[in-house]
Amino acid sequence: MRHWQLREPQTSQEWQQYYQLRWQVLRQPWQQPQGSEQDDLDATAYHLLLINEAGDIAAVGRIHQCQDKTAQIRYMAVAEAYRGKGAGRRILQGLEQQAVLWQCVSVILNARESAIAFYQGLGYQAKGEAEALFGIAHTKMAKVIKLAATRAEFSQWCQQLGQTWQQTIPMSQFMQISINGFDGNTFSCQAPLAPNINLHQTMFAGSIYTLATLTGWGMLYLQLQAQNLSGDMVLAEGNIRYFAPVSINPATRCQLQHCIGDLTPLASGKKVSQRITVTVLSDNKVAAEFSGRYVVLPKKASQ
Is the per-residue pLDDT at 303 higher than 50? Predict the structure, then answer.
């Protein structure tokens, strides 16, 4: 599925197939006429479809801007043959990325009961009942994609994070890891190739893993700062997939929408965990993907 196309409909035929799948999945089972799968917001919304190598449309979805820097996802539909294979996840992530480009703070949607677990698994939280549709109960769900703080605060937290690495993690100093920046959504880091090179003149796999691990750890740190929380952060599990050698301008990127797990119970003294995905870049091209499960342990009260 990595080589499937995720993009907007381009031709009249693709638009027809796009709306056809919306109708077949979301309206036909409830005896609704064709045309009921469209609304007045389609003209200004952002639409995505996922196409496999054979040219078949596996999934579709739409997002539109609302007030207060919020975007709403609607008309998520996955063809029956592609359900449970990650097609819906690809569409959702693409729509979320558009919300980031719009500089939205959060994404909302209304989910049927059968889809609630799917959205919760991708970081959405239930916010109450939504209006029923065709007699089907729906739940309002929301996901934050940008932390609420000022640029000055982001800069200060990154400076504190860099100092923590330098003082407590000697390897980060040897690798010359540095922070590129954080805008509330995207956290990026880099490390020069020279002190991390292997005999093939590419980045040592251990250095790639370390850079990715610290990037995820740093994103978790920034979230805790924004929510005024504190605790002991540890990596409980980590996996990495290598796609290509890292040979030019090694860097990493982590986005808030790819951090899955509620941190708020930490305020009540409970242990929390979060699954964080980090992209490793070589000359701004994807070379590897790291997925880590981080745990935050509440600090013990002073005796």
Answer: no
